[in-house]
Specification:
The complex is a heterodimer of chains A (111) and B (115). By secondary structure, chain A is mainly beta. Chain A is 0% helix and 54% strand. Chain A has strands at residues 4-6, 9-13, 18-23, 30-36, 43-49, 54-57, 60-65, 70-75, 84-91, 100-101, 105-110. In chain A, the strands form 2 sheets. In chain A, strands 2, 4, 5, 9, 10 and 11 form a 6-stranded mixed beta sheet that branches. A 5-stranded antiparallel beta sheet of chain A has the order 1-3-8-7-6, with no helix packed on it. In chain A, β6 and β7 (60-65) form a beta hairpin. The radius of gyration of chain A is 13 Å and the shape is globular. In chain B, β7 (65-68) and β8 form a beta hairpin. Classes of the chains: A mainly beta (111), B mainly beta (115).
């Protein structure tokens, strides 16, 4: 079942922060976050395994709450280059290869 | 650049024609995946290879779709008797195949338009 992402879209000014949420109705084994710019391939950001860990990548970090079956992506001090559509991909079956992606969150960072 | 490559990048075809796409994964990546992405949606899983073995096919993959990975390296995805509903971006991804949870690296995709 497809995870639900919120918000669907967000507009920021450079330097502002944003949070993107990903929720599933199924138990999650892992959550994979990607960013995709128009016409380009999805680019891997980070993977979170069940255990409630938080990971970071420069000014982008994420958390994973397996009890709530959700993950959040945190973007701090946003840059113009952060613009794009963010997707979460979830593994609910423990297959470790079959990801189900949400519909995405369109992030626009303006000067 | 040693990333995942896909060819062609764009394909326009008439309904009823057959099309074939190619994916070259990152060297030494044992796992290869095909996804389909339509406008406003995330990638949808189609099929998965571990080396040359096709281990799972989604229900989305009708009988008109076939994928191969003959020598465990590049892969092809063929669509027979294309329909307008097949219009989409077809993405290929690969991963190393050595871990429990692995990073899938995506190629640039092949955009298919069926007229």
């Amino acid at each position: 079942q497809q995870p639900v992402q919120s918000p669907q879209a967000v507009i920021l000014r450079e330097g502002e922060d944003a949070v993107i949420n990903c929720s599933s109705s199924k138990a999650l084994y892992s959550v994979h976050w990607y960013r995709q710019k128009h016409g380009e391939a999805p680019v891997f950001l980070m993977i979170l395994l069940k255990g409630g860990e938080q990971k970071g990548h420069e000014k982008i970090s994420a958390s994973f709450n397996e009890k709530k079956q959700q993950s959040s992506l945190y973007l701090t001090a946003s840059q113009l280059s952060y613009s794009g559509t963010y997707f979460c991909g979830t593994d609910s079956g423990g297959s470790n290869y079959k990801l189900t992606f949400g519909k995405g969150t369109l992030l626009t960072v303006n000067p | 650049d040693t990333g995942v490559s896909q060819n062609p990048r764009h394909k326009i075809t008439k309904r009823g024609q057959n099309v074939t796409f190619r994916c070259d994964p990152i060297s030494e990546h044992n796992r290869l995946y095909w996804y389909r992405q339509t406008l406003g949606q995330g990638p949808e899983f189609l099929t998965y290879f571990q080396n040359e073995a096709q281990l799972e096919k989604s229900r989305l993959l009708s009988d008109r779709f076939s994928a191969e990975r003959p020598k465990g390296s590049f892969s092809t995805l063929e669509i027979q008797r294309t329909e307008q509903g097949d219009s989409a971006m077809y993405l290929c991804a690969s991963s190393l195949g050595s871990g429990i949870q692995e990073t899938q690296y995506f190629g640039p995709g092949t955009r298919l338009l069926v007229l």
